[in-house]
Amino acid sequence: MLGHRDVPSKLDAMIARELHLGYSDDERIVEDATEQFPDHGEPVVRAALAAALEKRAIEERGWPETTDCDRLDSAFAALEAEGVVARQSFWCCTSCAIPAIKAEMMDEEARGTAVRGYVYFHWGMLDDVASGGPLGLQCGGAIADDDSAHGRIVERVVAALKRAGLAAEGRSERTVEVALDWKKRRRAPPRPDDAKSIEEHVAAWERAFATAILCCVPNMFPIELGPALVSVGAGALAARLASRSTRAGMADITARALAGAGEEALAREVLLAAYRRHPSVDRRWDNDLTTALTRDPALSYIALLLRGGLSDDVVARVAVARISPLPPTIFAAAAKAWLACLMREAGRPISKYQEDRWIGDSRAVWSYDERTPYEGRDAREGRVLLAAALWSYLTPEESEGYTDPAFGWLWSSEELIEKPQSLARRGAFRACAIANDLEARLDEVEGGAVPDLMEEMIAAGEIDMARALLPKIDGDDRTLALIALGELPSVDVNATKERIRELETSYQDCLITYAEWERGPVVAAHALAASGDPESALALLTASLEEKVAESKAEVAAARATLDQAAAASFEIDWTARAQDVSPEWTPTDERRLESTARELTAPEAQGLMQVRQRMRSLSRLLVKLAAVDRERSSKIFDDVVDRWGVGQAWWGECVTVMMAVGRLDEALKHDRAPEAPSMGRRSMEIARLLLLAGRRDDALERLIAFMAKGAWPRELLDVGLMLLSLAPPEKRPAIAARLRAAYDRAIVVLDELAPPPQAAPCRARLLRSAW
Description:
Blueprint: H1 9-21, H2 26-36, H3 41-60, H4 68-81, E1 84-87, H5 94-110, E2 117-120, H6 126-130, E3 135-141, H7 148-163, E4 167-170, E5 175-179, H8 198-215, H9 225-231, H10 235-244, H11 250-260, H12 264-277, H13 298-308, H14 313-323, H15 330-345, H16 352-371, H17 379-393, H18 396-399, H19 403-411, H20 422-434, H21 449-459, H22 463-467, H23 475-485, H24 493-508, H25 514-530, H26 534-567, H27 588-602, H28 609-627, H29 631-645, H30 652-661, H31 665-673, H32 682-693, H33 697-709, H34 714-727, H35 733-753
Parallel strand pairs: 1-2
Antiparallel strand pairs: 2-3, 3-5, 4-5
Helix pairs in contact: 1-3, 2-3, 4-7, 5-14, 8-34, 8-35, 9-10, 9-11, 9-25, 9-26, 10-11, 10-12, 11-12, 11-13, 12-14, 13-15, 14-15, 15-16, 15-17, 16-17, 17-19, 17-20, 20-21, 21-23, 23-25, 24-25, 25-26, 26-34, 26-35, 27-28, 28-29, 28-30, 29-30, 30-31, 30-32, 31-32, 32-33, 32-34, 33-34, 34-35
């Protein structure tokens, strides 16, 4: 291995430049350097960095206490306080930074800030600084202001810089130049989570719990709930539920139902809430498709565009500000191309400059992907979506090369060809609708693609073509299709109730999934309203909503009761008593099932993934029960099965559950911490509980922090809050308990807002043409 003396000077120069600029921590420098100089490896890079840091420390000892870079920080902080969004080292270039800074301004406006404008400098501007030149700043007024506002922001920025003690002057109505003796001390690395105070963790819990309680009730329902509520005259309640739901599709189909019923203002608010709910885009520019931002939020934006559309100029503006800064991945390229298509379709064609960037960049991403295919999650869906959008937007001559990638799955003669998922199918059909080419080669559509095609046909006004597809679908999909076509015959209330009972029996007998079971009553209510009985539909929906709200309120009340009991006992909580219930009785039937399942799993014959997954779930329940009476035997059987199948992603959680049951806590903790571990909900909470009982408070806190970071349901976060109380020093527990009570009280208020109003009057609202 090369020693540091043998490392080419290019590496030393790269490290010295990053330390001089001062915006990268040690780990980012090591990561970038090993990527740029792969032949030398991480040990050599770290040795070079250590030498550079030693030299840098000697230099910094000769610096003044306050440097020009400190003055720049002070000026930017003052501008932020004045309502100017100020960003340093922001994105890679002006083309990328402008839409990103506009998105930042919209975020600030959403938080209630009176935004005056912006100022920033991007990474490329630091090249002049690195060579001793002045720093250029880009300025601009708020989104809603006219061009004259830009000059006022320049004046404000120059004044703030001069107050901080820097020499600055405006060079144009949008640029400022500031002279700096660049001496920037790097920011201290952030403290690890376990170094935060318990109050900071409680604050993080308060934010997570407040977010989770908003969406808990809406997320318990299928997405058809929104249109069903609209159809019985409860549009305001439908809007509240859809605005808070994080279920894909609920916001957009509810907004379309509201618009169809004449509630345009509510529809607009629902769509805006959905666009704003998506996370901000990662500011790091990364051209490597294997590490850049991929699925979220790009595909979520595509779903909103394809199903929710662009209802008005405000929604279009939010979409542009959110989608434009997405990094160059196949998913982001598809989002930009679809935004261009739908803006043109909505009568808001993009400018030539935007077309060059959005469509030109999307075509470049497609070409890059052809040479270096991306193989990550949903790559196929991204290609179909991108190809369909480009096929739709470009001229026939330009779009020829995108035809097969967009539609080849439709007419392929291969029986086993993988069909794209619903969103990609919808994109292909929408492209055909925009091009007035819905009839072309679509006769072969079948299975789950049929409802997607019907929706696009109905939305395009091709009712006869859509009606011809009815024989290809059945069940709830057929009911929704008939509603969308306005052809649903009268539905009998008693027959509806009988069907719901049949669904419940089928679910208990494991003949249908939970999703099919929960969807049935909502679709039935929608059908009742469509067939002329909105009173019965409202009664069905009201009962279901009241039940879910009551369940959530009961969970909050139970946590409040536990908190009150703890307050009466010096804030001590009995975590042993809060263990999950497991029947201690081991029956002969359990023994027979265990032997059969274990024999099947350890057999040498080939088995499919779904078979193994189902058997692992069954085995996990049996081994947990067995561990209560014979832990050693349970552990031995588990090891035999893991030797055969390993701890696979599909049954990861089941394996961790057994590890905890047989007392292998360290092994369970290792798997729960693994980067590839799926989100494991209450299993992570159970690990934290066992660690707390074992006196391993630091490990328990670390698991709670990781659990909150992944997102959780309120019922799980209720236990997180109580655990944080137990982990707090005794003198801090009364104050933390008061914060928990306040959070519980706010949760009850939020849940009451979701209860159906007793005065809601059913009406014959015009149904949305597309009901799913």
